[in-house]
Amino acid sequence: MISRRLFLSCLAVLSLAACKKEERCANCGMKLDPSSGWRADLIVSGAPRSYDTPRCAFTAWRSGAAQASGARVQDFYDRAWKDGAEVRFVVGSDVNGPMGADLVPVDAARATRFTKDHGGRALALADVTLDVAKDPK
After folding, report:
1. Which residues have CB under 8 Å from 73's CB, separation 6+?
2. Considering only CA atoms, which of 57, 15, 13, 59 is closest in space to residue 32?
3. What is the mean pLDDT of the chain?
4. Which of 105, 85, 101, 82 is closest to 93 using CA atoms?
5. pTM
6. Structural contact between residues 91 and 137, judged by C-beta atoms closer than 8 angstroms
């Protein structure tokens, strides 16, 4: 028979394991992979708020769900974090994100080359509307 102390100890361990907080996308709730090159951040009240893809970040921002002052994304080629104003967001290319069609952040100097290699059209930060974010094909 299981002792009361052993039972309570097991219950405590199980409840702690269940409370483990995993970082999730602020838009869709998908678990964030810290090593993903598709992660994006919106700057909300001076602090980064993480999203699993640029598409989720822009959907939240342009719909008004997140009152952001800017975006931080990872460049497609070198995965370096860059300010959203420094890159172009390519839509309609043959490159897909983890959940399908997405806005592919490419350093502005490489955007023309990327569109030649992969198709699509490059947009500046200001040109990424809610309609584009919802359907980046």
Report:
1. 40, 41, 54, 57, 81, 82, 84, 87, 105
2. 57
3. 90
4. 101
5. 0.83
6. yes
pLDDT 10s digits, 54-84: 999 999 999 999 899 999 999 999 999 999 9
List of the chain residues with pLDDT < 50: 16-17
- Counting runs of H as helices and runs of E as strands, what totals does the chain give? 4, 9
Alpha helices in 19-119 (DSSP H): 54-63, 111-118
Cβ atoms 60, 30 nearer than 8 A: no
Take residue 87 and report the two structure tokens written for it: 């890159």
Contact 103, 55 (CB under 8 A): yes
| Cβ 25 vs Cβ 50: under 8 Å | yes
Q: In whole angstroms, what is the distance from residue 129 CA to residue 64 CA?
A: 11
